[in-house]
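PRL protein
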Amino acid sequence: CHTSGMLTPNGKEYAQKIPREELTHLILKLLQAWKEPLSHFNQHIEHHQELPDDSLSKAKQISNMVHELKTGVEKVTEKMQSMGIISNSLNGMASSEGTGLSISNEANMMSDSDFIHCFRRDSNKVQSYLKILKCRIMPENSC
C-alpha cells in the first residue's frame, strides 16, 4: 500500500492515546493520500470496456465521497480551532506537501484487488479515528 510508510497507531487503544490534534492531522493525511490514487484508478477503470457502467459510477462516487469527507474534516478542524479545542498548527497541512508522502507509481501499479484492499484498510482507519475524535470532542455521546 502506498500509505504503508505512514505512521499510524496499531490498534484502537493506541489511537485513543494520540492527542486530538495529531489524530486530526492523521485523518487529513490519509484522506489526502488517496486523492491522486483514486483519480488514477478512475482513469484506469474507464478504459475497461468490459466493466458495467454501474462499476464506473461507483468508482467516481467513492472518489467524490473521499473528497467530501476530506472537506468536511477540514471544516470540523477549522471549527475546533476557532473553539480552541485544537491549535492552529494544522493550517495548510492538508495539502499534498503537508502529507509527507510522495505518491509514487506504487499506487498506480497495484492490482485492482490490492488497490481496493489498501483503500478499505485506510478507510477503516479513518472511520475508527473519526469515531475516537468524536468521542473526545463530544463525550456526552456515551462512547
